[in-house]
Write a structure and sequence with these properties.
Blueprint (H helix, E strand, L loop, with lengths): L1 E5 L5 E7 L2 H4 L5 H14 L59 H17 L3 E4 L9 H10 L7 E5 L4 H7 L5 E5 L5 H6 L2 E5 H11 L2
Parallel strand pairs: 1-3, 3-6, 4-5, 4-6
Antiparallel strand pairs: 1-2
Helix pairs in contact: 2-3, 4-5
């Protein structure tokens, strides 16, 4: 698969790049994508939810009424879950939601997501960015020239670039990631995937191991 490399002005440079079919044109594995996205979302959960059960409620342990002769059901504690202010039955407790996935499965999931982006024409190859200073206006202008202003974008760079990252930080629906931080959830969540020229070969090397 060949794609034209664009300038920051949105024009073609006259050069093309050949994308590896082993990365961008495989048979997508939907189940691998499901597991990888599930793990990503699970790992983001804090798991700090907590409600008190009857043993943890502060209150009297005195029997609230006599056992028989009241005409209603017997009751032994004001902390019972059937009363207002009582403990909760089987309430949530702090827990860890994370789980393990094999590296090869996660690799297949990312390749599958990249393949879907390529099939949907959601890939843009951009020459390497050079921002002299972090300016949000420059990043907004870049998206406008690429006709991506109204789309959710994910820009992938070949190495850590603080100026590009800081320029994009306040732009809605725009994310910047180093190639090594790329994950399946953000790949699928973006409408358009913008790959810097220098990131393509590094990404292919990373996913071919």
């Amino acid at each position: 698969m060949e794609l034209a490399i664009l300038k920051q002005t949105g024009e073609e440079t006259g050069r093309k790049i050949t994308l590896s079919e082993d990365i961008f044109a495989i048979e997508p594995n939907d189940h691998a994508i499901y597991l990888d996205v599930k793990q990503y979302l699970a790992n983001r959960r804090q798991g700090t939810h907590k409600s008190k059960e009857r043993a943890e409620i502060a209150g009297s342990t005195k029997k609230i009424k006599k056992q028989k002769g009241t005409g209603s059901a017997r009751a032994g504690s004001i902390k019972s879950p059937i009363f207002r202010g009582g403990g909760r039955v089987f309430g949530p407790k702090p827990r860890d939601y994370s789980f393990k996935l094999n590296k090869k499965l996660k690799q297949v999931a990312r390749k599958s997501a990249l393949t879907y982006k390529a099939k949907e024409n959601g890939l843009v190859i951009l020459e390497d960015l050079v921002f002299d200073a972090p300016k949000t206006k420059d990043y907004i202008n870049l998206l406008a020239k690429l006709s991506l202003s109204d789309k959710k974008t994910l820009l992938v760079v070949g190495e850590n670039n603080p100026n590009v990252y800081l320029s994009s930080r306040n732009v809605q629906k725009a994310k910047v990631r180093v190639f090594s931080e790329l994950n399946t959830y953000e790949l699928l969540d973006a409408d358009s995937l913008v790959l810097c020229e220098g990131a393509v070969s590094k990404l292919e090397t990373l996913l071919s191991k």
